[in-house]
Amino acid sequence: MAATGSLRAALGRARWPGWRWLRRFARSKTGKATAAAITALLALTLLRAYSPGIVTELQERTFDTYQRLQPRAYADYPVRVVDIDDASIAAFGQWPWPRTRLAALTTRLAELGAAVVAYDMIFAEPDRTTPGRVAQDLAGDSADAQRTKSLLATMPDHDALFAEALEKTSGVLGFSLAREKNSARPLAKAGLAFVGVEPTRVLPAMPGAITSLPVLNEAAAGIGGLNLSSRDRSGIVRRIPMLFSDGAHIYPAFAAEALRVAQQQKGLTVRGTGASGDSSTGRDALLDMRIGEFRIPLTADGEMWVYFDRERPERYLSARDILDPAKENEVRPRIEGCLILVGTSAAGLQDIRATPLGQPVPGVSIHAQILEQILAQDFITRPDWADGLEIVMTFAMGAFVAIMLLSFGAQYSLFAGLVALALAVGGSWIGFSQFRLLLDPIYPSLATIVTYVAVERVLHVASDREKKFVRQAFGQYLAPELLSRLEASPQAMRLGGEDRDLTIMFMDVRGFTPISESLAATELVEFINTLLSPLSDAIQAELGTIDKYIGDSIMAFWNAPLDIADHTTRACRAALKMRDIVAELNSRDAFGFAERGFSDPVVRIGVGMNAGLACVGNMGSARRFNYSAMGDVVNVAARIESATKSFGVDILVSEDVVRAAPGMAVLEAGEILLKGKSQPSKLFALVGGEEIATTSEFAELTRLHASLLAQLDSGDAPQLASLLGACRALAPAAAAGLYEMLSERITGSKPSTEAPPVAPP
User: Fold this and answer.
1) Which domains does the chain possess?
2) Which segments within 143-280 are labelled E, that is strand?
3) Predicted local confidence at residue 604, as pLDDT
4) Is the pTM value of this prediction over 0.70?
C-alpha cells in the first residue's frame, strides 16, 4: 500500500506542472478568450454545414441584392410575350376567351412569321362556347328547340379548331404539377438522351399532373412544365425546375420545350455526375442540359438560377394589336422569327410573381427571361464546390480574427477583421459581377463578427476615459465626422483655452419678436425646431461646430477643436445652404404662416461671418462647461450679422472672410462703423458659391459693381442709374436687396424695412 501511494504521488508530481499551467491558462483572459473563439467557430461552422432555412434565406437575399445592383443586360433577343392584357380583355371580352379566338390568335401569329407559339396556360376543360355543348344545355323538346340543337351540333367544335391551329403552327402547351396524387400525366413530346447519372434517379417523382385536353395535347408540338419553383418560402422566384419526372419519363420545362420546338429538335441531352471527364461530388446530381445549340447549367436537382432583367415594354405586345389587321406593319417586324409566349398580365387573373429585383411580374415574363438568358448564354450559377469553400472560409476567417485579437489587441484585430470582411464581400461581388458565380459572403462575415465580439467581450479592456469625455463634451455640437475624428485622435484637442484661427458665424431670424407675439408657446417651439434643425444640419455637413443656440439664433465656428484646412470656404458653403433651406421651407409653407393667413408669411434670416484669431476651449465651471470661442473676432461677427438689415442682404461677410475664401461670389456692400469699433469695416454680400463666381456674367457684374461704388457720390444721376440697371440685370437674386439699398442711397429715399410675418387680425 505504501508503495502504491508513493507511485501515485510520484505520478502526480510528474504531471502537475503541465496541469497547473493549463489551469492557469484556462482561468486567464487569454484562455477564456481562446475558449470563446473555439466555441464560436465550432458553432458557426456546424451551423453553416447544417445550413438551416435561415442560412439559405440570408444567402438568397444577398444574391437578390447582387441582381439588383447588376441585373442582366437587356438585348433585343427574338423572344416576345403576347400579352392578354387589360386592353385585350376590354376589346374582346372577359377571360376565358372562346377557343376560336385563341385559334385565330395562333393562326395570326403564324402568318406574321412566329417561330413558335407557346401558351403559358392550361386548357384542362372543354370550351363552354362550343355549339355542341351549348346545344346540350338548351331546354325544351319543341320542334324549334330540336332543330336548333341539331343545327348547333353540326357546327365545328371550338377545341378542335384550336387544336388544328396549334398543329399547323407547331404550338407548345403547358402542364403543371398537381397538389394531390392522380394518374394524369402529360404527353412526352421530347426525346431524352442522358450522359452520366440517369435523371429519374435525381428528380423527385411528380404526384400527378394537370394537363390540357387530349385533343389539344395531341396537336401540340411540345408540352412543358409551367411550375415555377416553390422552394422559396418568401414567394420570390429565384430558380425554376427545368426538368420534371414521373419516375419513368422526363418532361422539359415550358421555356425549354419552346426552345426545342423553335429549333425543330427531336429531343434534349442531360448531363449528370458520372459522365466521362466529370468528377463525382459524392452524390447523384445533374450538371447541365443541351437543347440544340444551347447549353443550360443546372443545379444538382435540375433547376436553373434565373438571372433577371428589369421589366421592359419592348418584351410585350398586346393580343389586341396582334388581332388588329390595321397594325400588321407595326407588329410583323416584332413577331417574325421570334419565340412567342402567350400569357396574361390582366388584373384579376392572378398570374403575378415576385422577383429578386423587387418587381411583381407576370409569370409569362419569367419564362421569357429564361429564354432570353439561354439565347444570350448569360447565366448565374452556384458551383458544386461553393458549399465546401464557404465552410472553409467560415472557419478560416473566424480563426484569423481570433488570432489577431489575441495577439495584437482590439484595434489591430478590428482593422484586420474589417479587411477580412471586405475581402469576403468583395470576392463574392467580383465572383458575381465578373464570373456570374453565386458565392455567399454572409457566413464567413458572420463568423468574423461573432468571433470578434465573443473574444473582445472576454478580453474587454475598459473604455478610454478621454474618449468618453470627448463623446460627452462634444456630442451635441460637433458634426459626426468631426466627432469620429476626434475620438480616433483625442490628442488633437488641447483642453482649456487656446488661440486658433477660426471662422465665426452668427445667424438670426429677422423680425422674431412679432413672430413670437403671433404664436402660442408650443407653436413657437415648433417653429424654432422646424427652422433650426435643418440649418444645424447644414452647418455640421460642412464640418462646423455649433457653439450655442440663443433663442432664434445660432452661433457656430469652424477649425476647432480639429483643424479644417478650408474652414472659411466651408463656412461660406454652409451659409449658402442655409439660404437655400430657408427658401425651400418658405416655398412649401413649412411653418404654416400662409395657412394661418399671415400678411407676410415669408421667414427671413440674417447671417454674419468673420474670420480671425480667437480663443477657443472649455469655459465654465468644473461641473458645467461649454466648448466656446471668445475674442474680438467673435464680437465683430455678431455685429456683422446685425448689419445685414442695413444692407438689405441675408449674408454679410468681413474682408478677412473674403481673403480666406477667394473662390466665393461676393459683392462689396460698403463700409460701416460697427458698434464698439473706432474704424469703419468693409463688408461684402455673399451672393453665391464657386459655380457663380467663375462665370463671365459675374466677372462683368463685379466690374460694373466696382464702378457703381466708385461713382456713388459723384452726383451723376444718369450715369449711376445706368450702372445700377446694368448691375441689376446681371445680379443673382440674392443681391437684389443690396441694389435696392444702393438705389435708395442714390435717390435719397428712406430705406424700406423688411416686414416680418404678421398674424391676421
Assistant:
1) 20-72+381-451 (no CATH), 79-130+158-376 (no CATH), 462-492 (no CATH), 494-693 (3.30.70.1230)
2) 171-177, 191-195, 209-210, 222-225, 239-241, 243-245, 250-252, 267-272
3) 93
4) no
